[in-house]
Amino acid sequence: MRAPSSTVAKGLTLAAGLTLVLTACSSGSDGNGDGNGRSSSAGLTSCSSQGKANTCNSGDRKSGGTFTYTIEKNIQAWNIEDSNGNTFENSEAMTAVLPQVFVPQPDFSLKLNTDFITSAEQTSSSPQTFVYKINPKARWNDGTPMSADDFVFLWRTMNGKDCPPPPADDESQTKGCLPWSTSGWDRIKSVTGSDGGRTVTVVMNKPYSDWKSFFGGGYGLYPAHVAEKAAGVPAGGADKLTAAQLTKGWQYFMKTPPTRYATGGPYRMTEWKDNDHATFEPDAKWYGKTRPTLDRLILKVISDATQEPTALKNNEVQGIYPQPQVDLVNQIKDIPNVSYTIGEGLQWEHFDLNLHNPVLGKYKALRQAMFTSVSVKDMVDKTVGQFDKNVKQLGSHMLMPGQSGYQDVVTGTGQGSGDLAKAKKLLTDAKFTGVGSGLKTPDGKSVGPFNCRYTTGNAIRQSECQILQSALSGLGIKVTIKPIGAADLGTVLTGHQYDIIVFAWVQGPTPTSNAQGTWSTGQASNYGGYSDKQVDKLLNDSVGQTDAAKAMSLLARADKIMTDDAYVLPLYQKPTFFAVQDRFVGMRNNATIIGPPYNVAEWGLRK
């Protein structure tokens, strides 16, 4: 999942100073080149040099060619702003066709998309005001100019007020808007257009530090005139749409692949074959400076990561971005004319508990004991540590190592230590009985059995559930392991169809909005139902801080409370793995919510 990338997540001064650390980089040849004349500077091997995160694997392109890139989940909901559609794979697909203001870069900075916006700046601090100038050339590919109306539609569907979330009895979640996060959007007082809609002015009710996350930061703008048509109203009036009309537009983008409406990126999607592939071709109406040179871009769905090396070796695909596994990495090493890089980015693996489960929700001591019984070091050693020796237990719910303000608030509590004796004492002190042999609550009810859920085909997460299963058996808790279909993770999360689940957040470079959008009470991405009034206040205060040090201090205080509540156990900063045939240029690892396709217009055959 993104940090729906929690979903899915953005930034201002808080992103300053972040660097992408490439922990390993190799290729299918030795350092002196191979029989085909490829030197070690070709392909992704050039990413190993410090400071080249944003420029590695650059080169002149020639016209032609097809590049097939893998995505690991089928796309069932096409609105990347919705909690159900806010998946990493959906973001990768929609990046090629939707405009956004600021784009996350491989070094975690945010870069203004000058193809779309000529300038974006804060013009006043009281009230905080931002002004965006839309490029006069920017048009949707049906000829409609991009305008303030597109900004207004996005704001009104994201703020949680103009288009309220579906009622609790709406299991299909089609009677409202369900944004992955309302963080920041609910602080906006107004979004208005001038200069024929080419100037957009945003006025805030309350200060917001991560304003660069608005209208981009890994997410795209959808065409308002298409939403208005779906709602049965004239174009150009997003500010007047009723909640029901906003819902119709929102749901249209949920159900409809972008083959069927106007888009505004360097490519247009020409075909979507469910659970198989999406085909893109250069958009002749593209207004940007960088022209795509590929004849065709294909995103191929391969939900079983173990099949990706074979597909790459057989030239069925030319680039893969799987979750790295030991055998997979070793197989890629043996493929000639392919380079790969392993990186550490804004992705982190974690176990979540479902607090909607009455037993897990009621007993904090139980949750603390469960997390204390699990050895994260053992998990790392038996999984990702076998190909990346730098991976260690993650100590924060808010920040990654290397980000300014990172504090380890987890390790000192013993959570993730595998200390079974301490875990048992936590339970006996809390008056649990049957510790180690059929655990019961203080009032005599059985604890468990619980299920541990992971996406099918992911051997690492299967191992993580097995290690947790073994650890909890030592407390007298039975755990059954129950895989999830690769396309069903969002449904399982939003439907609370788990007791324990392991997955990864893929975040943007702005920690305060990430945190508020993920952990605050009632946020759609707060799947397990965590709620703490003090944490809510600390997170709310952090997003209003323009002083980065103060914002990080507030996050640390919230992090300590969350850790004590034992809702989520951070495991490790997740390694990323990107492998590409050396005959292509422009592709590079972007370990944020947007992924490698952040610069898809620059992808092409090496000249």
Helix content: 10-25%
Pairing-aware structural class of the strands and helices? Answer: alpha+beta
Uncertain regions spanning at least 5 consecutive residues: 1-41
Number of helices, counting only DSSP H or I runs of 4 residues or more: 15
Q: Give the end-to-end Cα distance, rounded to a whole number of Å.
A: 36 Å
The radius of gyration is 24 Å
Walk me through the topology.
Blueprint: E1 21-27, E2 61-62, E3 66-71, H1 88-95, E4 102-104, E5 110-112, E6 117-125, E7 128-134, H2 148-158, E8 188-194, E9 199-204, H3 224-230, H4 243-255, E10 267-273, E11 277-282, E12 296-301, H5 308-313, E13 319-320, H6 326-333, E14 338-353, H7 358-362, H8 364-373, H9 376-382, H10 420-429, E15 450-455, H11 459-473, E16 479-484, H12 489-494, E17 500-506, H13 511-519, H14 533-543, H15 548-565, E18 568-581, E19 584-585, E20 604-606
Parallel strand pairs: 3-12, 15-16, 15-17
Antiparallel strand pairs: 1-14, 2-20, 4-5, 6-7, 7-9, 8-9, 10-11, 11-12, 13-18, 14-17, 14-18, 19-20
Helix pairs in contact: 3-4, 8-10, 13-14, 14-15
